[in-house]
Specification:
- The complex is a heterodimer of chains A (150) and B (152).
- Chain A has one helix and eight strands; from the N terminus they run H-E-E-E-E-E-E-E-E.
- Chain A is mainly beta.
- The longest helix of chain A has 16 residues.
- Chain A is elongated.
- Chain A has a single domain, classed as Immunoglobulin-like.
- Chain B is 14% helix and 43% strand.
- In chain B, the strands form two sheets. In chain B, strands 2, 4, 5, 7, 8 and 9 form a six-stranded mixed β-sheet that branches. A three-stranded antiparallel β-sheet of chain B has the order 1-3-6, with no helix packed on it.
- In chain B, a hairpin with a 4-residue loop joins strand 7 and strand 8.
- Chain B has one domain: Sandwich (Immunoglobulin-like).
- Chain B has one helix and nine strands; from the N terminus they run H-E-E-E-E-E-E-E-E-E.
- Chain B has 152 residues and is mainly beta.
- The chains are: A mainly beta (150), B mainly beta (152).
- The interface between A and B is medium-sized, with 35 and 33 residues.
Chain lengths: 150, 152
């Protein structure tokens, strides 16, 4: 009886030891946008706080944010619907990107930075952020955020 | 009694060898996966883009083995009457190496904006994405119908 139990235990060990993570999506970081709120109006030359809550069981990697125009009202999957300006052709649209390292030992973290869009005669109107967050083991989440620039 | 102890030790060693031998299989050969591929006019989400317009190419790449993603390639070619590859007009035929939001990751979301040159041929184009992992395994969308049309 003891012997049977022992052998069963060993066989279980062999199989448990071989269960592998197949690299699918369950390990991506979780993102909660805090500021700006979807559809907020931001102003060239006026600083604002960019704030985002990030959770991940494996610790954090980095964050990349980019902003580009959306005068044609295209969608990137998870935008909140906003009241949009009339579609128009871009003449001198604003574009920028930022990359920051995140603390690798944190499982829950509020990332915050102050951003100012330089006031240099850029087109005003509908824009959106692309936000990529990577965890400490290489899983990435993507979200986007629609805003208006004035 | 002594015999039993000896047997237990033997069994434990055997199990240990089994665990390590059966699990020491680092997967270096399964190619990555390309998901949710889309190519659209950046300004209106249609698949018709004028010369000088911007194509938005989006996809997600997932490393399916024990390695990480390494780089990707985007090619957008037309279909010349001759049918010859050397006669194709290519809006883009570029590799994207060392991208901080791609290289070394297990999965990555890609959004590229590509300007259509003013001299691009008009008509239908095929969008082909290739993704390569750190072990050199690659996958492409050559057989996937992702098409756009370029107009005046």
């Amino acid at each position: 009886m003891k012997k049977t139990l022992y052998i069963t235990f060993l066989i279980t060990l062999v199989f448990l030891g071989c269960i592998k993570n197949d690299g699918d999506n369950q390990d991506k970081p979780e993102i909660t946008l805090l500021s700006p709120a979807p559809c907020d109006t931001l102003y060239f030359g006026v600083p604002f706080t960019f704030q985002i809550k990030i959770s991940d069981k494996d610790g954090l990697g980095n964050i990349k944010m980019g902003i580009h125009h959306n005068y044609g009202h295209h969608q990137h999957s998870d935008h909140e619907p906003c009241s949009m300006d009339e579609p128009k052709t871009a003449v001198n649209p604003y574009f920028n990107e930022w990359i920051f390292a995140l603390p690798s030992e944190e499982n829950e973290y509020i990332f915050q930075t102050e951003i100012t869009f330089v006031d240099n005669g850029y087109d005003i109107g509908d824009y959106h952020f692309h936000i990529y967050v990577t965890d400490n083991v290489g899983y990435q989440s993507f979200t986007s955020l629609a805003v208006k620039l004035q | 009694m002594k015999k039993n102890v000896l047997k237990s030790i033997q069994l434990t060693i055997l199990a240990g060898v089994l665990v390590f031998a059966s699990c020491d299989k680092t997967d270096t050969t399964t190619p990555p996966e390309i998901k949710n591929i889309a190519a659209t006019n950046h300004d209106d989400n249609t698949t018709v883009i004028p010369r000088g317009g911007t194509i938005s190419v989006n996809f997600e790449a997932v490393a399916k083995n024990d390695g990480r993603l390494d780089w990707y390639h985007i090619e957008i070619h037309d279909h010349p009457e001759s049918g010859l590859v050397e006669d194709e007009y290519r809006i883009i035929d570029d590799s994207f190496m060392d991208k901080v939001t791609f290289k070394g990751l297990k999965n990555a979301n890609v959004h590229e904006h590509i300007i259509v040159p003013a001299e691009a041929n008009l008509g239908a184009y095929h969008v082909v994405i290739t993704v390569v992992d750190e072990y050199g395994n690659s996958v492409d969308t050559e057989d996937v119908d992702v098409s756009i049309a370029i107009i005046e």
